[in-house]
Amino acid sequence: MLRLDRLQAGYGGSQVLFDVSLEVGPGEVVTLLGRNGMGKTTTIRAIMGLLPAVGGRIWGGDVRLDGAIVSGQAPHLIAQRGLGLVPEGRQVFPTLSVEENLLATAANRSGGGAPRWTLDAVYAFFPRLKERRGNAGGKLSGGEQQMVAIGRALMTNPRLLILDEATEGLAPLIRAEIWLVLAKLKAEGQAILLIDKNLSAVLKLADRHSLIEKGRIVWSGTSAALEASPEVRDKHLHL
Question: Which residues are CB-contacts of 212 (< 8 A; sequence separation ≥ 6)?
């Protein structure tokens, strides 16, 4: 589905990504892990076509969806191919209600058939959002905003859901709820590319992991392999 092939990217004259390669197949949950400042968000921006908006660009390599090169395409064209992004910092529309936030992105990019994700389906997944459907996005708690951000991405009926720092800054109970939601999505066959610092949670959830350090993929493997490699975790993930 998604393939990065020796991706190189940066900002101005500074290169950030060096030959980054990774893949996400249908129904897979794959993580991109690393310390702060190692290139994770730049990788997501490159996938989504968002680098030019922040003064960056792809210098080399390819981003491919279903084998077709999408590097350099406009973000809305890339999203239309079935990518749904939950950005770092949530970025809900503060003056729109919960329901307006969700409806703002509604589409069916799943590849045909009846959409899995409708307003009712999102409310069933996140009952708290139904209770607050009329509340402005800027008046919600951080956890509620994250639910809106995930629901908004799901309302596009994405083939691949991308989450940048899925549970950062959330209270423990809300984090647990988000991990439960992601596990349910995986059980339904939703492909997910995930960035998060909660190693114990991602080891339980994900099929495969890629570790990035200073813009280079330094290790890739399964959850079992990463769990069995404390030296890898200590070297590339722990402070």
Answer: 20, 32, 33, 34, 38, 39, 40, 43, 218
What φ, ψ does residue 121 adopt, rounded to 5°?
-65, -40
83 has a pLDDT exceeding 70: yes
Q: Which residues contact 201 (CB under 8 A, 6 or more apart)?
A: 167, 175, 179
Q: What are phi and psi of 47, to 5 degrees?
A: -60, -45
**What gap in Å lies between CA 109 and CA 121, rounded to an integer?**
16
* Whether the Cβ atoms of residue 236 and residue 34 lie closer than 8 Å to each other: yes
Find, among 162, 175, 124, the residue nearest to 47 by Cα. 162
Residue 89 or residue 182, greater confidence: 182
What CA–CA distance (Å, rounded) separates 227 from 115? 37
> What gap in Å lies between CA 205 and CA 9, rounded to an integer?
29
Task: Give the mean pLDDT of 200-210.
Answer: 96
Q: Which amino acid is at 107?
A: A
The confidence band for 239, taking pLDDT boundaries of 50, 70 and 90, is low
Q: Pairing state of beta strands 2-11 and 56-65?
A: antiparallel
* Count of beta carbons in the 10 Å neighbourhood of residue 82: 22
d(CA 8, CA 6): 6
Tokens of 74: 């406009």
pTM over 0.85: yes
Considering the chain, what is the average pLDDT of its residues? 94
Cα→Cα distances 47→40, 63, 195, Å: 11, 6, 13
Is 39 strand, coil or helix?
coil
